[in-house]
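request received
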Amino acid sequence: MLEIKNLHVKLEEEDKVILKGVDLTVEAGKVHAIMGPNGSGKSTLSYVLSGRGGYEVTGGSATLDGAELLDMEPEERAAAGLFLAFQYPVEIPGVGNMTFLRTAVNAQRKARGEPEVSAAEFLKLVRAQAKLLNIDAEMLKRPVNVGFSGGEKKRNEILQMAMLEPRMCILDETDSGLDVDAMRLVADGVNALRDGKRGFLVITHYQRLLDHIKPDVVHIMADGRIIKTGGPELAREVEENGYADILAEVQ
Amino acid sequence: MAAPKPRSDLRAELTAARLAALDLPQGGFTAPARADALARLQAMGLPTRRDEYWKYTDPTALTAADASPAAVLVDAEAPVFEAIDRLKIVFVDGVFDAAASDDLSLEGLEISRLAEAGDIHWAQGLYGTLEAKGQIPVARPLAVLNSAAATDGVLIRVTGRVSKPVELIYRHMSEASDAILHHFVKIEPQADVTVLESGPGASRFNTVMEVDLGAHASFHHIRVQGRDHHRRAVTHVFARIASEATFKSFTLTMNGALTRNEAVLDIVGDHATAHIAGATVGDAKTVPFHQDDTVFVTHAGTHCESRQVFKKVLKNGATGVFQGKILVKPGAQKTDGYQISQALLLDGDSQFLAKPELEIYADDVKCSHGSTSGAIDDTALFYLRSRGVPLAEAQALLVLSFLGDAIAEIEDADIAEAITARLEAWLARRR
Ligand SMILES: Nc1ncnc2c1ncn2[C@@H]1O[C@H](COP(=O)(O)OP(=O)(O)O)[C@@H](O)[C@H]1O
Ligand SMILES: [Mg+2]
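response:
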């Protein structure tokens, strides 16, 4: 479903190369995890896939269901079914969380030629989803992410993901800054969306999220490349021994 | 060759030419006040670009003997406050329109028209006094001109709690119009009123509103200036705010070749509140856009709070100006003064010129001011787009988000919604 081939990326403003040939395929219905040391390029990969500016693709491709993502505007990628849960969700003062969600859902529906969802229907859907994620009504009324705790921001990302029903979900360190209870909520939210068709790319530092969201495949990224790919046991190996052994083994 | 004329001669000539083009009203209870204003104007003269207070805004079009014509906007938009139950008073190019106005009576207040006030009136001894007081320490000659030459306006005395707002509707019908209106609002102790204003008024429009708030009185003012692109306006609000009174004013400016909004707020009592806010959106794509907010807040009482919140969205070479001052007089202890002015520049051609000032002569006060200008936040824009919100819609959301703090100064939710709807429509026309 998501096919990344030999992706090379540098910073637009500097001569700094960040991704040095990434190859990765996520099949429909599968959960892939990417682990790797800080600064290895994990967030950059997620940003480039979702169309953030400031990066230059110098080679390679990334397709979603056969369509080239790299040629699309960010909103087109979203309408095509891509979703990124941000490592650092953005605060938007003055825009209500609910307004934001409804604008996003309807914009995507419009782009896909589907009818808008009515305000009443939407409210019902959001309330139900919010309840599952332990997000209270007050949080829905507040401006997007403003004054939210770290955990609330991450749960809000999962709420957006649930409402937008993407084909391909990328989660960038959604577990960072979460306590055990919040992590379980987030993991349950993600697991509820595993329907055998949707693909997931879960970026994380820690094994503990992967105890809750069981990956099919685990990749290790270092210095802009996927250096090792394996099953869930690879995550446990990292948890026990760190990255040093794997890095040494590859070199 | 003749030597260049001294500046004072040029100013006197400019003033004489402007006065010569006017038909000054005669008689009535305002006659002494008008004569006084005329003498003051002749002494101070009209402003020129060389004056420090007009450094960022060229007053030439406002002081010229004749007004430049301004095309009348053919507008399909419903009146901004249509959904709000209010008493309507309509002026067309500065001329009262009885047929379009409501009956000028409402429980809790008395309304009369300046042009029909006669020789004896409660506003005698009040008309022009707040304007005159507001000339110190900075001269505001266009307000003096207004006191001398206003052809009409409303005199409102509020004696109780008024059930609905009073709206002054300013229609612009003639391209050649040039209008001067002067209002006086006297709010007795404990009384409470909301005054709305909307519309361009005329091709060139000069308004003064004097507001005298008694103890515990409250005044809410929401103004929407007309969208006619070529119109020019100079407005002044002069308020005297007594103990425990609340003054709140918000202005929305959309379009207009030239707008200068001055507010002079004099807090004379203790424990009073004065908030003044403005949201401005200007796009100079086809017609120049220049908008100036000039505010002067004086704290003379203790334990008072003042807030100035001004936000401007500028596009295609538009210019925004903010001159804001907080003066805390000796003895005005426990003053809480706040001022923020911010511009969102949607391109590199637009500019924001700001001159925030604090002058404090009391030691136990809390005053802060800030001024910023910047572009739309790329990270926020990307965040919205990554959720599928198209670029133009995402930009519009962020513009509204930027203006949010100013709109939040409007207490009434229905009015705030009407203002937001106007802004949304303005943004939608520019997608
Ligand atoms: N916009 C940027 N400007 C400067 N450096 C960047 C930018 N984006 C990423 N980098 C650099 O690229 C490298 C990879 O960063 P990142 O993708 O955030 O790694 P990770 O998510 O794996 O920690 C780091 O060295 C980081 O400093
Ligand atoms: Mg990262």
